[in-house]
Amino acid sequence: MSGIAAMEFRRGPGGSVVALRGALDSQTLPPIWSGARAAVRKNGALSLRVDAAGVTYCDGSGIAFLLDLLREGTRQGARVTITNLAPRFAELLGQFDQARLGDEALPSALPLSRIERLGRASLQFAGNLRRQIDYALRVTGCLWYELRHPSLVRWKEVLSVAEQMGVKGLPVVTLIAFLMGVVLAYQSAVPMRQFGAELFVANLIGLSMLRELAPLMTSIVLAGRTGAAFAAEIGTMKVNEEIDALTTMALDPLRFLVVPRLLATMFVTPLLTIFAGIVGLIGGGLVMLSFDIPLVTYFKQITGVVSIGDFTGGLFKSAVFAYLVAIIGCLRGLETEGGPRAVGQAATRAVVSAIVMIVVFDGLFAVLFNLLGF
């Protein structure tokens, strides 16, 4: 209901009067609300009457306005009454306890003790962990279902994501792997040369690059590059309500958005890991040339100490790391709430969470491989 609302304040020998007329609703009240409160606050009289004879319409916003005038007048010590209000509006106003309008605000809750804060934090952590495990299991179930039914996989989307990750991420992975091989070779060869054992630097580089550093560094690069991209893309879709649109059309967001990205990540990451391992070995070999060790001797030493188990172990870890990067990036995107700022926060959380989980699982693999004698 639209219209014009007006307020007139009059002082008289018997007290002050606030005369209202017109429609009192959410569209007409904003221009007069603050002025009416100020007039009541500066009243100074012991009696204040709100004359509603001219009110033609009053909805919930109008009732809130009247109650606000009553509360403000009561706080100023005046006796406030509302007169000439139409019966249908008075019935709505009567549903509220006007006697408690001057009550003080309820005291704030007492501060929580350390035990209570710890308990709340533990419950919140347990709830988040349960939701994340449930999400991971649902994604794994969708992945298994689509692997059993390849015709349902959105292969075009998989190839597009794989291109973004693999082809465009290859230069960064190459540079980091090469420099890692160079640094590792230099840092190892200089002290070992004092004992005439610089040849065994090849053993260190071969095992470290293929078994540990190649999958670890590749996954960390993808966490910062791909995980953040997944979170930003899906987070933007969530903010724009595109995820809700998919659900409305009976399309599962996990199968439609998450699974293609997961497949692409788990396919590309082992390939990048292989390439990173080779480039890292080449970087170490170039350093060993400066120590008068031929490349033939260098690579022969590596092939003698690195087994197929070390190579496959690195590939297995890279696949697990890829799984973590993909599902965490997509999860942070699906959890996005709010505007553009929330999208940036989701991308940051995706990168941090993915790197932390990569390091945690890398430590678990180190312990597990040692126990298995692998």
Order of helices and strands: EEHEHEHHHHHHHHHH
**Sheet with the most strands, sense and barrel status:** 4 strands, mixed
Q: How much β-strand is present in the residues?
A: 5-15%
Tally of domains? 2
User: Level of helix content?
Assistant: 55-70%
Number of strands: 4
Notes on the protein architecture:
This protein has 374 residues and is α/β, with parallel strands linked by helices. It folds into 2 domains: 5-100, STAS domain (Transcription Regulator spoIIAA), CATH 3.30.750.24; 128-371, no CATH class. Helix content is 70%, strand content 9%. The protein contains 12 helices and 4 strands; from the N terminus they run E-E-H-E-H-E-H-H-H-H-H-H-H-H-H-H. It has helices spanning 30-41, 60-75, 87-93, 114-148, 155-167, 170-193, 201-239, 242-248, 253-290, 295-305, 308-334, 340-371, and strands at 5-12, 15-24, 47-58, 79-83. Strand 1 and strand 2 form a beta hairpin.
